[in-house]
Amino acid sequence: MTFRAEDLFLADISPATVVTLYLSGPVNARLAPKLMKDLKPGTRVVSHAFDLGSWRPQQKITVSQRPIFLWTVAAPSDTRR
């Protein structure tokens, strides 16, 4: 596991296999295109409390009355994202 302190919009996130987020809704929505573009297919993205805008989660659960969202990065030709 690696933790890095960098600008999330400029950082090279391509090696990640799991990305966890606890950001605001507007920041998540701005970040979603980078996640879809830079992460390899199969990479999992988990967000606490806030979704990723128009990118629909594959799963949403509630833990301690807070939503947790899960996405898996699809292959570029997969339009289900």
Written account of the structure:
The structure is a single chain. This protein is an alpha+beta fold. It has a domain at 18-72. It contains one helix and four strands, in the order βαβββ. A four-stranded mixed β-sheet has the order 1-2-4-3, with no helix packed on it. The longest helix is centred in the middle third of the chain and has 14 residues, at 25-38.
Structural key phrases:
17% helix, 81 residues, alpha+beta, 4-stranded mixed β-sheet, 4 strands
Summarize the structure.
Helix content is 17%, strand content 26%. With 81 residues, it is of the alpha+beta class. The protein has a domain at 18-72.
Please state how the strands of the largest beta sheet are arranged side by side. Answer: 1-2-4-3
Query: How would you state the average pLDDT, rounded?
Result: 92
**Structural class, from helix and strand content?**
alpha+beta
The largest pleated sheet is described as:
4 strands, mixed
Proportion in helices: 10-25%
Strand residues, percent: 25-35%
